[in-house]
């Protein structure tokens, strides 16, 4: 009887101790959540979760919060250990799985962001419905360098139109400003199939609510000078990005107009996405048809493009874009044009 009595007393005190620890752990968790979500004192919240884990090593909610706090304090390795520990006990835990995937994407994007140099090559053939018209071929390569002041790019383009070939040389920059950045481009060619001179400038700025705006000027000279004025409005909606761009080009008493609606759905990083473009008119930014800019200025056209771009092996990006263009090549006569653009980029 005495043994049973002693065992019951021990059992009672053990239950009371466990209950007291449970209460203490719950209180610590509440305090840690308050410090995380209200005061944003992550270090204090982390200290509270460590105390809670010491009392109750298998308390899942505390572990999840601790892993989240390690992410918030830029300690991805510690966060990964916590989330992996959770998955050992509960392999299907959705929050831990999502957090692990998020850490993988953040680390990959950080590695890419820290790479300052980029080389790229793009091949773009264009095919025509009209019999007897040879395909066009456009090949360009560039080297880009990211600096503290912005990105600088040097590009060389080679074009083959069947009856004539030529080279174009470009210098491009994206200088940063306090509230935005600029796009600057200068191009020169002594080949007849390119514009002899081309210059472009845009100022771009982001606003609250995921909005962004652009205003710009384009200049081209071949036989005569042409000036285009335009801009764009963009909006981020979750993983989606929508952008409407327009240009007007005065010429011989007429004003040509072009419009393009671009949509992207982003996947893991800013360089992973599906894209779609609906456009009408000829844009001064259209590299494929730019050499015929003045000839196509007042003709009707409608374009649809579908594309996909993906990061592979952390440092490389591959992309493909297909375009259908319904073009008025002479008044009241139209033909179909088909473009395929294949791009490869490497960062280092």
What does this protein structure show overall?
The N and C termini lie far apart (79 Å). Helices cover 29% and strands 47% of the residues. It has 348 residues and is α+β, with helices and mostly antiparallel strands. It has a 14-stranded antiparallel barrel with strand order 1-2-3-4-5-6-7-8-9-10-11-12-13-14. It has six helices and 14 strands. The protein has helices at 2-37, 42-55, 60-72, 76-89, 94-113, 293-296, and strands at 117-128, 136-147, 150-160, 165-175, 181-188, 197-207, 211-221, 225-237, 240-251, 254-266, 273-280, 301-312, 316-330, 333-347. It is elongated. Helix 1 packs parallel to helix 3 and helix 4 runs antiparallel to helix 5.
Key terms:
348 residues, 29% helix
The number of distinct helices, counting runs of at least 4 residues, comes to: 6
Low-confidence runs of at least 5 consecutive residues: 10-22
Q: Strand share of the residues?
A: over 45%
N-end to C-end Cα span: 79 Å
Brief summary:
With 348 residues, the chain is α+β, with helices and mostly antiparallel strands. It contains six helices and 14 strands. It has a 14-stranded antiparallel barrel with strand order 1-2-3-4-5-6-7-8-9-10-11-12-13-14.
Topology (SSEs and partners):
Layout: H1 2-37, H2 42-55, H3 60-72, H4 76-89, H5 94-113, E1 117-128, E2 136-147, E3 150-160, E4 165-175, E5 181-188, E6 197-207, E7 211-221, E8 225-237, E9 240-251, E10 254-266, E11 273-280, H6 293-296, E12 301-312, E13 316-330, E14 333-347
Antiparallel strand pairs: 1-2, 1-14, 2-3, 3-4, 4-5, 5-6, 6-7, 7-8, 8-9, 9-10, 10-11, 11-12, 12-13, 13-14
């Amino acid at each position: 009887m005495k043994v049973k009595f002693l065992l019951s007393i021990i059992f009672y005190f053990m239950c009371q101790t466990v209950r007291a620890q449970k209460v203490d752990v719950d209180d610590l968790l509440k305090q840690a959540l308050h410090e995380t979500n209200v005061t944003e004192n992550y270090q204090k919240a982390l200290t509270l979760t460590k105390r809670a884990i010491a009392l109750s090593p298998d308390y899942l909610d505390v572990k999840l919060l601790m892993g989240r706090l390690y992410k918030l304090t830029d300690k991805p390795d510690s966060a990964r250990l916590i989330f992996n520990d959770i998955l050992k006990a509960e392999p299907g835990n959705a929050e831990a799985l999502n957090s692990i995937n998020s850490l993988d994407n953040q680390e990959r994007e950080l590695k890419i962001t820290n790479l300052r140099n980029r080389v790229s090559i793009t091949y773009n053939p264009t095919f025509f419905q009209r019999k007897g018209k040879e395909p066009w071929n456009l090949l360009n390569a560039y080297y880009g360098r990211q600096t503290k002041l912005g990105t600088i790019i040097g590009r060389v383009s080679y074009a083959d139109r069947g009856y004539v070939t030529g080279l174009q040389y470009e210098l491009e920059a994206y200088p940063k400003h306090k509230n935005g950045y600029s796009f600057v481009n200068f191009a020169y060619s002594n080949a007849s199939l390119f514009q002899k001179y081309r210059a472009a400038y845009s100022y771009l700025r982001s606003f609250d609510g995921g909005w962004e705006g652009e205003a710009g000027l384009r200049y081209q000279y071949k036989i005569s000078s042409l000036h285009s004025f335009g801009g764009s409005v963009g909006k981020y909606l979750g993983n989606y990005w929508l952008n409407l761009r327009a240009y007007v080009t005065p010429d011989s008493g007429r004003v040509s107009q072009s419009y393009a609606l671009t949509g992207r759905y982003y996947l893991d990083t800013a360089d992973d996405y599906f894209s779609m473009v609906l456009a009408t008119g000829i844009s001064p930014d259209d590299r494929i048809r730019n050499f015929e800019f003045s000839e196509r200025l007042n003709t009707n056209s409608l374009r649809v493009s579908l594309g996909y771009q993906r990061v592979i092996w952390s440092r490389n990006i591959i992309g493909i874009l297909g375009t259908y263009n319904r073009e008025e090549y002479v008044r009241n006569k139209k033909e179909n044009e088909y473009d395929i653009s294949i791009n490869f980029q490497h960062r280092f």
